[in-house]
């Protein structure tokens, strides 16, 4: 899964202005990168396993406490747990393209190899 996302996001990256995007796209079509192309199977497996673990943990908590399931509280806790990393990732996505530009960026050109 990590490998598939690495190749996908590297090939479509606009983070560095001198990055050669044709190399990951050429590698993507070779047979040895089958598992990178078949990432949908990994996503389906992840969704099924996360749903099973969620139900297993929920049933365990309800059996121990003899409590009723409060859907609103569950959704609020889940939203809060997921919104912090998501907002951090969106902020990083917004700020990273700004790394390759700026008032003194031309002074760093001597340290980079051309794309």
TrEMBL record:
The keyword Transmembrane helix applies. Keywords: Membrane, Transmembrane, Transmembrane helix. The chain crosses the membrane at residues 41-59, 79-96. This is Uncharacterized protein. It comes from Medioppia subpectinata.
């Amino acid at each position: 899964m990590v490998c598939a996302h690495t190749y996908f996001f590297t090939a479509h990256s606009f983070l560095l202005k001198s990055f050669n995007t044709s190399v990951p796209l050429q590698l993507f079509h070779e047979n040895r990168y089958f598992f990178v192309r078949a990432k949908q199977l990994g996503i389906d497996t992840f969704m099924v396993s996360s749903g099973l673990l969620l139900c297993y943990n929920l049933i365990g908590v309800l059996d121990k406490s003899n409590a009723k399931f409060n859907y609103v509280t569950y959704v609020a806790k889940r939203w809060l747990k997921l919104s912090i990393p998501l907002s951090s990732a969106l902020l990083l996505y917004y700020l990273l393209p700004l790394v390759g530009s700026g008032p003194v960026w031309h002074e760093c050109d001597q340290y980079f190899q051309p794309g």
